[in-house]
Amino acid sequence: MASAAIPANQIPETTNYLTNGFSLKSWLLTTDHKRIAMLYLISITLFFFLGGFFAMLIRLELLTPQGDLMTADTYNKVFTAHGMIMVFFFLIPVVPAILGNFLIPIMIGAKDLAFPRINLLSWYLYVLGGILILHVMLTGGVDTGWTFYSPFSTQFTNTNIIEAGLAAFIAGFSSIFTGLNFIVTIHRMRAPGLTWNRLPLFVWANYATSIIMILGTPVVAITIVLVAVERLFHLGIFDPKLGGDPLLFQHLFWFYSHPAVYIMILPSMGVISELITCFSRKRVFGYKFVALSSIAIAVIGFLVWAHHMFVAGISLYAAMIFSFLTFFVGVPSAIKVFNWTATLYKGSIEYATPMLYAFGFIGLFTIGGLTGLFLATLGVDVHVTDTYFVVAHFHYVMVGGVLMGYLGGMHFWWPKISGRMYPEGWAKLSALFVFVGFNLTFFPQFILGYVGMPRRYWQYPPEFQVLNVLSTAGASVLAVGYLLPMIYFLWSLRYGELAPANPWNAAGLEWQTSSPPPTFNFDETPTVTWEAYNYEEIDSKPQEVPVGR
Amino acid sequence: MADSHATAVQDVAAANPELRHHFADMAQQKNAASLGMWLFLVTEIMFFGGMFCAYLVYRVAHFNAFAAGSQQLSIKLGAFNTAVLLISSLTVVLAVKAAESGNRKQLVTYLVLTVLLGLTFLGVKAIEYTEKFEKHHVPGSSFQFTDTFDDNGQHKPVNPHEAELFFSLYFAMTGMHALHMIIGCGLFSVLVVLAWKGRYTPQYFTPIENAGLYWHLVDIIWIYLFPLLYLISRHS
Amino acid sequence: MSKYLPLWPDQASTIAGQVDALYIYLLLVSAAMVFLIFTAVFVLAVKYRRQPGSQAHPIEGSSILEITWSVIPFGVMITFFLWGAILYFKERTPPADATEIYVVAKQWMWKIEHLEGQREINELHIPTGQNIKLVMTSQDVIHSFFVPAFRLKQDVLPGRYTTLWFKATQPGTYHLFCAEYCGTSHSGMIGNIVVMEPQDYAQWLSGGPQAPLPEAGKQLFASLGCSTCHRFDIQGRGPNLQGAYNKPVLLEDGRTVIADENYVRESILNPTAKIVNGFQPIMPTFQGLVSEEQLNALVAYIKSLSQPPTGAAAAGNQAAAPPAGQPQTTQVQ
Hints:
B: mainly alpha, two-stranded antiparallel ribbon, C: alpha+beta, Immunoglobulin-like, Cytochrome Bc1 Complex, Chain D, domain 2, five-stranded mixed sheet, about 20% strand, elongated
């Protein structure tokens, strides 16, 4: 183990992106994509723990059937805050803004993204949106649920909808500019020889994500504007008494918010492709299929939004069409799961922490995705929609999927990002806490949903208590699983073993630079002559640095 | 080998002061900037698209009221504004051409003309909005609508709430469009100053092109707005 | 099931068993899929774990395998879709003979009106073995009428009627929940569905002093002045509503619509929206002048004008018989 690290007295003299300037100005006015990724890491992590804090409050209140921890209004504001923060300020940006920003230019052999200043602007927009949402929370919060359906949000609530909407609007533009940056970068700045078919699947995944970001986000932006305008001027855009239609709001809202969940999951799927290949030492099974599945998910994802509205009052025939299309979007996801599993066949598998997260992802995403099929099935959806079944489904894919992928990626690329190794023993333990805690938290919620507990309930009938207690117990285990990495990642910055350029002997251009990389990534733009995941070639060479930990 | 590469990079950089460090050459930079601008325009289309969608749904549901509201708009002013914008797109095209051929005076002239035409558009819009205000057609507490839908001589009564919906969308859509016009005028004003200072050469005039693309999009959006809002049921 | 750890809701409607059957099918297929993937990952991860001397064998892929494991799962998904769609079609097609009960949702309670005049708050008494159709609207925000034991829910919207039909099978008391977040007391907007044997229900019904809904509607029809224009004896300024309910109506713009409850409601609140062909647009609007309950009564009354005197609806639902030689002034196709 120690032989893979570099002894402290042999630290290379060259500066890297972290040591290239220590002033606050050099950070706050940076245009280096890696520094911007780190700025995002700090702000997104803060919001994650804030959202998690609200989750803790929810689970504590739900320990007992009565509403006894806080008032109903407070509870409504708490679950709204949890949803808004987790959706807009964590899940949407987490993998693209942190890992995508850091890795995409390096993975394609570029010195930076296409528009570094717009990249910095994206971060400032995120921060501005974040400040606004914090202010909203400090001045009484909003109580509409993150989905802010009209007419409740437009006419009945007295909370600060406009400011909250503005926060989401601004954060949305952060997202749009990130997506725009990624698309132009991937199209125009690939190193010579790096054809589309040689790209790492992480890049393909972020490309597909970026398409959704630029096409979908503006629609929720204009929806927020219409809601704000209706509140400000007492218009009737969504008010039936004034000729408006509350269902129009739902269509406009879900037109973005459904593709938004693919913005969340696709980059994590890209991470999984990187992890499985490295820790099986082989190319992914069916590279083209996996790459094109990402694009397919992005495209088909725009056609299914009204599956959130099967009992909302849409016509019978519209419901059937959307149900049918929803089954289509499950197919490319299934292809990916099968391809990742097939990659394990005849591999040489190492149980490093990132790989454990990848295994966890496959298991939990499979369950989450299958329960999505339950919801797509009209006859069942009528019963389980708006219950804890849906809550369980989306937490399986968002937490069991997106978050596991993110954590796996953070562990995998931590040596590259920080120049340090994390402590493997603690990391494996955390992964176990996360997996066990997660299932204990959310599996009982499937049962709760089918027996009829609706979502967003502050109080509930007594017979639902045992399942709720199980869920809260799981949440406390899960919380430990999330706190531990915070602690040991920070610890590693000072006490972790120094990392070599390629501690995993992984394929990919990012591993050809030092850990951490220099500011401009490469001294010379590489010319790529090899296929992605060329592990056969890599492993046939004699290794200077032994792998395996 | 590395040295000669480094020198080559330095030469390219020296010859092109506008070349940003992460691009290999000006061609790559210009390509990237263009693609970026086109993608941004796509997001603008999606943004306005939401409002067009709302408009479409409500016009089908409340046709009489929408037609009545539309008949209250000044078709003369709307048509004039359409002509103004079309001419301004022409001046933009001419500006790009001037930049391409290195004619600084012409470039500045056409940019200034574009701004003036844009301001004219906004001025006419202000007149229209004032008229709406005077007729109590601004949605909100002071809204009143007593007109009917003149369907070829037949006067059909209209639910004032539905008419208010028309005007809500009218103000939302033309207001958002006007906001984009203001941004465009601001953008072009900055370009006027930079062009005057000689910043743009035949080798580097990407900002003129990209700002031009933006202007053309805002123009096209108006080309859709005008018939949708002003020309409902105008056969009389 | 256990009172403390309910694992399955009660079945109390004819559709509940069918939903459960589909759910179990989905569960079995999903369990099989999960078992397959988990086993595959586990076995492969162990069998091909890194050992001294072990080497990975690169495999590019297999188009045949890709197509197989796309087509077969998709085929299975189609069975999910078809079964679900058929069930949904049944759920959303109320039988013609269903007894109507009106529901008005408001923050934060359910107000229920039986045709016979019984009113309930947060409780709905119904008999077993009878098709019931709820005609629902909201006074304020969107709510959702959810009965887990029936496996049914339907959003309740302001400004229009939505419907939900069922046939209860099992006497008992079952949860009624609001399932669309609606503000402070969303989780307090709960109640009971009380399913009774038909004879018990009949007894419960007869205990109420209120006038039957259509009767209340008839009184409103007179007191609000509707009868001035909508006459039954001679051609009035408005269409004759005798027998008009649920029939096609030709509008002056050429469209034909069905005069269902939403049409009647819209015609009262927004009369200029759909003018009947051959009539002048002179009807005033009653927006703000009638409550939801009054609207329900009017709709019930107009419905009753289409039912024969000895109709299937409960006693008290007697419509005035049209005089002989009545000119039909409503255009019917």
